# Entry
Amino acid sequence: MATVYKRSYVTRDDGGHTVRRRCPTHTVKWRDDRGLHRIRAYSDKAASMELGRKVDLLVALRQRHDGPDAELTAWLAKLPEKVRADLTRHGVLDPRSLLRKEPIGRHVDDWSADLETCGRDDIYCEVATSRVRRLASDSGWKTLADVTADSFGAWRSARAGKLSARTLNHYFEALRAFLNWCRRQGRIDFNPVAGVVKVDQRGKEARRRRALTLDELDRLIAKTPLDRALLYKVTFYCQLRREDVKQLRWADVNLEILPPCLVTRAAVSKGRRETRHPLRADLADELRAFKPRWARLTDLVFPAGPPRVARGFRRDLEAAGIPYKDELGRQADFHSLGRQTPNTVMANTGVAPRIAQELMRHKDIRLTMGVYTDPVLLNKAAAVEGLPVIGKGKHLDREARTIKLNGTDGGPVDGDCVQNCDHAGVGTGKNQASDGTELTSDRGKGDANWRNRRGSRTPRKTRRSGVSVSSADVAEVPISGHSYSASGQGSSPSALSRPTLAIDISVTKPNRRGSLRTGGKINTG
# Structure
């Protein structure tokens, strides 16, 4: 509890004698969790006592992480500047805590000014601030202390049937962004709606977009005038948004470099980062022919801009015989032309998801794969046809075929396995043919040594790099029903239609003087 007293001091009088005197002003002393503090008060004792009581109240509010009420705020506003500075220096008064009891409209104005300073879009600032103001007006919030999760939940429940789930989530996102800004500025200690979750909007969308099919794209380009047809092509191939196309300049289209590219500037892009889009060769030629000779770098590529849905784009869809809404109630607009449509086409053509994410300029892969991919147009039938056949033994994987080819399973070599293997006849293990001839290979060389189990082993001096056959009279080596010639030129199996692999072999044939070694080639699958 604060104590009010007058401090005494020692001085000398005119006669040089030491005397003790009291200060004309009072001193307020208190102790809190930060130690002992003293500040100079007033000469009036009643005013000093009132200051001591207010100091105790401010210390209690700071420990509870709470701000002053309206009465205390009015009293603080009348304090002398010297006393207010002393209270701030001793940590009793937080200058930002005075803002907690200000009208919430002032905080919204400060937030809007800060958003504009940070470079946020004007439309976003206007929409976000208007939503927070409407929430404060409908919920009866006068100050930041009035904002609670319960009051926001009551407002959202009352308008659940009037506003869509997406719109309710937009209101919640605006309020959460505003309160997070107030917390960073020290105007509140925590976000009161931090624990509130969004409304599940799956299946409740008032407007759902769809992607155009390739046939619809062809008809749209064919039935549209040349200038708008080129605009649609650039939008599709570069995955552009409406604002990207509207602000596209000739300085952003680099047609003189290889490969040509299109640049979306950071000031225009939604993600506020500059990206480069590679241009197809045919699209680059069309842009060169479309560019006027007198065009400057600062001129817009499409001065008329992208058409609006209600006027130009929907009229072009009707001219091409494309329904604006499909059987599921999903609509095709200009945004889907540049976002859902190219992303779905890339998914069907096998483009890697990471590449699609980079082309779509998304920070989260879930946005690329979930929101901007039309599941109705995905080629799921081709994916099912690509699954292996089961029930007939044709689903053996590469490892199973390799084991069967090497003969480690104890059975004969299957001809299908030889054809399906990438390096049939050239392995690292043993390959056993149907006549008992065994094929081995030297590690690290890729060549093979042939020997006959029924005959004698090949002498060590004849085992060299390449393929050597030890047999009495061996002209051919049958493998899986195919004969491979050991002549100088070699021949390919008649049953194989794909290109074969030529292997150098050597045939060792005994004679009176020892062994005769001849060379040749063998072709295998």
About this structure: The longest strand covers residues 501-511. Residues 119 and 435 are 81 Å apart (CA to CA).
